Design the sequence.
């Protein structure tokens, strides 16, 4: 059964809504990340993809829900209300599911609370441990919307909010839900900034995916949500491939086998070939190993034919929100001829030792019909998602009948 | 909301057995290198998985659904303490605190290249994990899903936020579609969610533990409550 991505809501370093993000995609010459002076343990300034903008007033919610993570989520979900409201009115609340990808939940609040505990032997009165449970954003959004269907979080590191797209599809496909709010939210915190540094994965400056001097990631924050349903919408989900490397906990299988299998499964499910793909949003973290593996995998399947880019320089690596954010950039490009293919920003020379995939380094507009988005996460957790304009799905259905 | 599932095999360990069963015995199949640095949380999760019937998992036509409310929160809590003291973060501690780390380690140790998902759903984790297993079996037409549910008591300083009985446990299950033609299975079950909202009960046993004990008992029906959902579970055979 075809399921649709009816609408998209977003807040990230590029902007606080769809139109600001679209505008930013037209201006990759600007920098959207900023220097942070608070998160690094030794006070070193680090580049982060931080949301700049006024967050919604959270004072009406219980104190444990008043986290930056939930505020970001609310900001993105409020944009979806024109699409969501009629669906919420039409369907039974137990048929509305909320499936959210996150890795941080409200752990920034917990960091402050634990520091308070260490200093005073007591947690702050307003602190509640539930704020950092991974279910927190899903529960918050379900309560906010009055949704009472399946409500859970998927947390598979950097593939979390790509995985939710498949779960949403399966819930609709098996008639467990009529509408699914799905996507991801992660917020900047000390744990990820210092944790990835401990793993030697963070860049000393702004990240440079696929360049010869790339040295790791910049952390970012974002909220990116879709309304998915069986009601026809502008964009259809065409295929998803999920695989595991079973290779290494924090490094990808260099052969690209797990990535290639994921892309192939997505193409098979969609009954499509590599030639049908108009644009690929790469995982493109800017680590030595991801970019080696991913360029090999993409070149093996697409040669140098499919335009592709990593948007991590623009947004930072938003971890649990990255998958939905990057699929959302594809959604914006598919649904608006004035929104270019998300441009690949790299200010240093390209790494010529990598397979020569076709990086889109200028602002390029084209009428794309089908886009692919890759996420290759910690633990060897791979997923690739193919989406297309709704009429691409129709052709697909007739060809398989 | 309702669905049916067959449970072909299961393995449960809880606080009452830990101590009688050494955690290290559960993971005796692992190589010494692999056992090193495993936290108790990892030992519980991987140990439960390793005690499933290996024959059922020989082919790779299955997926793994890992579910935990708090994850390896003892590790996360140590990291939060390090951050508060402005001490550097342990790279292996940070790795282990990632929610899907233990599922990833299992796939690496056992060389299972199966798709993996990792879920959290507060007190409703059992229902979320089984829902996820059901939709994978039906929508992706795979033959089995392996579900592992694992949690530990909260670290001492967080105990004041407890809203259910604090236990260490792991339940691993091999789950498939109910198919009467396949003859008798250990458990063919129907799960039906009712419309009522559960009463908050801060002393209730975690639903996973109640469910695991019921699986091995003789009662026909089990009624379970999470934080948002009530379910009735009935035996079909």
Sequence:
């Amino acid at each position: 059964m075809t399921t649709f991505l009816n609408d998209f809501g977003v807040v990230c370093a590029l902007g606080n809504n769809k139109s600001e993000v679209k505008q930013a995609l037209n201006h990759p010459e600007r920098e959207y990340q900023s220097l942070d002076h608070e998160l690094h343990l030794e006070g070193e300034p680090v580049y982060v993809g931080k949301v700049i903008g006024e967050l919604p007033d959270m004072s009406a919610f219980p104190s444990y829900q008043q986290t930056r993570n939930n505020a970001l989520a609310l900001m993105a979900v409020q944009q979806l209300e024109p699409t969501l409201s009629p669906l919420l009115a039409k369907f039974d609340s137990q048929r509305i599911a909320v499936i959210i990808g996150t890795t941080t939940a409200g752990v920034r609040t917990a960091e402050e609370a634990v520091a308070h505990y260490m200093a005073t032997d007591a947690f702050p009165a307003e602190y509640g441990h539930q704020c950092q449970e991974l279910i927190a954003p899903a529960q918050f959004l379900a309560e906010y919307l009055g949704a009472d269907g399946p409500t859970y979080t998927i947390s598979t590191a950097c593939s979390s909010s790509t995985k939710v797209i498949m779960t949403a599809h399966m819930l609709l496909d098996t008639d467990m839900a009529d509408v699914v709010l799905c996507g991801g939210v992660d917020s900047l915190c000390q744990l990820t900034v210092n944790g990835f540094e401990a793993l030697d994965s963070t860049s000393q400056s702004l990240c440079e995916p696929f360049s010869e001097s790339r040295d790791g990631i910049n952390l970012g924050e974002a909220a990116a949500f879709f309304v998915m349903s069986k009601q026809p919408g502008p964009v259809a989900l065409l295929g998803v491939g999920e695989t595991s490397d079973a290779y290494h906990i924090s490094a990808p299988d260099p052969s690209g086998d797990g990535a290639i299998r994921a892309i192939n499964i997505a193409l098979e499910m969609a009954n499509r070939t590599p030639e049908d793909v108009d644009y690929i949003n790469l995982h493109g973290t800017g680590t030595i190993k991801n970019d080696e593996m991913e360029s090999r995998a993409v070149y093996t399947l697409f040669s140098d034919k499919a335009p592709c880019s990593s948007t991590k320089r623009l947004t930072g690596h938003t971890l649990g929100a990255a998958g939905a954010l990057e699929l959302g950039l594809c959604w914006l490009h598919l649904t608006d001829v004035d929104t270019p293919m998300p441009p690949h920003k790299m200010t240093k020379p390209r790494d010529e030792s990598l397979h020569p995939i076709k990086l889109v380094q200028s602002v390029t507009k084209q009428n794309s019909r089908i886009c692919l988005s890759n996420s290759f996460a910690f633990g060897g957790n791979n997923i690739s998602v193919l989406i297309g304009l709704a009429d691409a799905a129709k052709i697909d259905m007739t060809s398989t009948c | 909301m309702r669905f049916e599932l067959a449970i072909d095999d299961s393995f449960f360990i809880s606080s009452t057995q830990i101590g009688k069963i050494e955690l290290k015995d559960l993971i005796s199949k692992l190589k010494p290198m692999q056992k090193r640095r495993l936290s108790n949380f990892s030992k519980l999760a991987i140990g439960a998985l390793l005690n499933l019937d290996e024959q059922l998992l020989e082919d790779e036509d299955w997926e793994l659904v890992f579910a935990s409310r708090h994850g390896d929160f003892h590790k996360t809590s140590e990291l939060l303490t390090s951050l508060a003291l402005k001490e550097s973060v342990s790279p292996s501690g940070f790795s282990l605190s990632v929610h899907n780390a233990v599922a990833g380690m299992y796939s690496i140790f056992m060389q299972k290249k199966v798709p993996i998902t990792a879920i959290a759903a507060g007190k409703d984790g059992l229902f979320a994990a089984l829902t996820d297993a059901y939709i994978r079996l039906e929508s992706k037409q795979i033959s089995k899903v392996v579900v592992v549910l694992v949690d530990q008591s909260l670290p001492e300083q967080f105990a004041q936020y407890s809203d259910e009985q604090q236990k260490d446990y792991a339940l691993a299950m091999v789950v498939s579609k109910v198919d009467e033609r396949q003859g008798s299975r250990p458990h063919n079950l129907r799960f039906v969610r009712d419309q009522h909202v559960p009463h908050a009960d801060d002393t209730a046993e975690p639903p996973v533990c109640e469910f695991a004990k019921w699986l091995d008992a003789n009662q026909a029906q089990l009624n379970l409550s999470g934080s948002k959902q009530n379910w009735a579970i009935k035996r079909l055979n």
Residues 131 and 161 of chain A are 19 Å apart (CA to CA).
